[in-house]
Amino acid sequence: MTTSDDDPTVPIVCTDCDTSSRVALSDVADAIENHNERLHDGEDIATVDPDIAAHIADMAATDLGLLEDE
């Protein structure tokens, strides 16, 4: 996995392994899948940092107008 200055990184955490890392945005899905397959028999343990995921979900909901009063 390579990163460039143009490819932002995303924090990935695994509570079972007690590890964290930053992965290029374009590699996040593959990195999480590979980690979980290799170390956790495919169980969804490693994930995008939950605080970041919640923030992204909030931003998307705002952009889509889902949080506006009708």
UniProtKB/TrEMBL annotation:
DUF8149 domain: residues covered: 3-69
InterPro entries found in the cross-reference section: DUF8149
Domain of life: Archaea
Protein name (database record): DUF8149 domain-containing protein
Taxonomic source organism: Salinadaptatus halalkaliphilus
Lineage: Archaea, Methanobacteriati, Methanobacteriota, Stenosarchaea group, Halobacteria
